Amino acid sequence: MHKPVLLQEVMSILAPKDNEIYVDATFGAGGYSRKILQLADSKVYAIDRDKSVHTFFDELNSAYPQKLELFTGKFSKMKELLAQSNINYVDGVIFDIGVSSMQLADGERGFSFMHDGPLDMRMNQSSDYINAETFVNTLGEKEIADTIYKYSGERCSRRIAKAIVNARQKKTIKSTLELANIIRSVIPRGKIDAATRTFQAIRIWVNDELGELEKGLKAASEILNTGGRLIVVSFHSLEDRIVKNYFNQLCGKNSPIPTPSEFTFINKKVIRPSREETQTNPRARSAKLRAIIKL
Ligand SMILES: C[S@@+](CC[C@H](N)C(=O)[O-])C[C@H]1O[C@@H](n2cnc3c(N)ncnc32)[C@H](O)[C@@H]1O
After folding, report:
1. pLDDT-based confidence at residue 127 (cuts at 50, 70, 90)
2. Which residues bind S-adenosyl-L-methionine per the record (predicted)?
């Protein structure tokens, strides 16, 4: 089961109130939505591009009838999704970026080299997105190397891309373990598994995660009421940089000409999980929380 990260910190910033409307842009197992509904008689519109979260939705929905709605889709499209329920403005939007523990644990989804499974990695399996198998078996060597480097900073990206292209000439690369072993065969052992960074990069590419984040933040900032809060928990530096730069822009920080801004920071410094939390939930280790409020 997925343990929500920075739950107390997110809730103390969101400070849910009766009759307010919130968007949980990354529903997952519904950890944040559940807490909001426990804290206030509010309404939550949840979004997830992964259909399999329906079971978690059904359970929460029966505990809080009429208080929760789920849209299956991308959060970059949140305006269009909310419009289906005639919602144009809300009082808070939360993002908890990345993959869930359920997605990682299910070998059939292909997100993790800890389990053997098909090279899929699509969060939405019915989407038009190209899966990881097509990525490794059809893209050019340079494009593979550049993508791995761009989305993970992997210094051996060229060597890995070459090994992938050599391997696929003999036989189509079909499984997570095949791919992990190809990567491991060409890069030195280190503290973390050699395949970690490449898997992260391919997953980001397959799901256009950074493009989604940019569009999702923009959409969220446009639907907030005055006093509305935008809260983001991210898990690696590429995501955090996008959040930080966009929030700086919205809050008028670093602007050459001082102009009245529409938003201000709730927390000046990024919020990190406590030692206690990282000890009980290793997934929280790299989490960073940033939040702004609409003036
Ligand atoms: C880290 S989990 C969220 C966990 C959740 N906060 C909880 O407490 O259970 C991220 C979820 O967001 C979904 N997701 C990631 N990117 C998305 C996007 N662009 N649009 C919609 N859902 C997305 C994933 O499918 C996954 O279920």
Report:
1. low
2. 30-32, 48, 75, 96, 103
Domain 130-206 grouped into CATH 1.10.150.170 = yes
CA-to-CA distance for 136 and 63, rounded, in angstroms? 44
Q: Which of 66-75, 124-133, 239-248 has the lowest mean pLDDT?
A: 124-133
30 is in an annotated binding site: yes
Distance in angstroms (rounded) separating the CA atoms of residues 206 and 290: 25
Could you tell me which of 15, 66, 23 has the C-alpha nearest to residue 46?
23
| Ligand 1, pocket-test mutation among 9, 26, 124, most atoms within 8 A of CB | 26
The finding on whether 31 has its CB within 6 A of some atom of ligand 1 is: yes
Q: Is 122 in the pocket of ligand 1 (CB under 6 A)?
A: no
Which of these, 65, 64, 75, lies nearest to 28 by C-alpha position? 75
Query: Model confidence over 137-181: pLDDT tens digits?
Result: 999 999 999 999 999 999 999 999 999 999 999 999 999 999 999
The answer to whether the CB of 9 is under 6 A from ligand 1 is no
Out of 3.40.50.150, 3.40.50.720, 3.40.50.620, 3.40.50.1370, the CATH code matching 7-102+209-294 is 3.40.50.150
